[in-house]
Amino acid sequence: MNALDLSIHRSVVSSAAHGFARRAIDLVIAAAAAIVFAPLMLVIALALLLEGGRPIFFTQTRVGAGGRPFRMYKFRKFAVRCDPGGLALTMAGDSRMTRIGRFLALTKFDELPQLWNVFRGEMAIVGPRPESLVFADCFRGGFEAVLQYKPGLLGPAQVLFRHEAKFYPRSADPILFYREVLFPAKARIDLSYYPQRTIAADIIWMMRGFLAVLGLVSRPPVGLVSPPPIGM
């Protein structure tokens, strides 16, 4: 499957995959967060503008529920002159990041503009992490079931892989390692949680997500992230 074949998954989306109650909770939390973090977002925007100029935001097409693509918003972490066709992953100590970008990566404040995606109904507060089109072909072999659920700002996979950049072996091809190890590990976590999720459980993961930002985060279960295949 490539980016142009995403529509084949639209039939797997259940009309009850998110629900009215969760949507209402998303809007309330997103509105409250937008108000609370508005001063911080203004400071970040001004800092980015002073450091490197425009653009302030980074936008990228991601895979949404049912394979529908949407534009996801983040604060820019990389230098303005970075090659837009560069590595699709952010690595530990990535040289493309600016000083402010490193702070945003550490705190996850670069994700705050995604509150707009929540307001638009493209994302939820809790849901699987939306993948870039580069990895759209990973949704196969049963993993396409993840596309039944609206992508979210946080959730079990995001919390457990809070420091994802540290999982990459130095000798591994990062794209191949993500495709063969990290993506399947995160997809299995999503598929073990979302089919039986409850609103109470979602609220617990919201709290765990907040703790993860503070550095209080659990690691993935032992054995879930297996070593890369020999020869990678």
TrEMBL record:
<keyword id="KW-0812">Transmembrane</keyword>
<comment type="similarity">
    <text>Belongs to the bacterial sugar transferase family.</text>
</comment>
<keyword id="KW-0270">Exopolysaccharide synthesis</keyword>
<keyword id="KW-0808">Transferase</keyword>
<protein>
    <submittedName>
        <fullName>Sugar transferase</fullName>
    </submittedName>
</protein>
<dbReference type="GO" id="GO:0016780">
    <property type="term" value="F:phosphotransferase activity, for other substituted phosphate groups"/>
</dbReference>
<keyword id="KW-0472">Membrane</keyword>
<feature type="domain" description="Bacterial sugar transferase">
    <location>
        <begin position="22"/>
        <end position="214"/>
    </location>
</feature>
<dbReference type="InterPro" id="IPR003362">
    <property type="entry name" value="Bact_transf"/>
</dbReference>
<keyword id="KW-1133">Transmembrane helix</keyword>
<feature type="transmembrane region" description="Helical">
    <location>
        <begin position="27"/>
        <end position="50"/>
    </location>
</feature>
<dbReference type="GO" id="GO:0000271">
    <property type="term" value="P:polysaccharide biosynthetic process"/>
</dbReference>
<dbReference type="Pfam" id="PF02397">
    <property type="entry name" value="Bac_transf"/>
</dbReference>
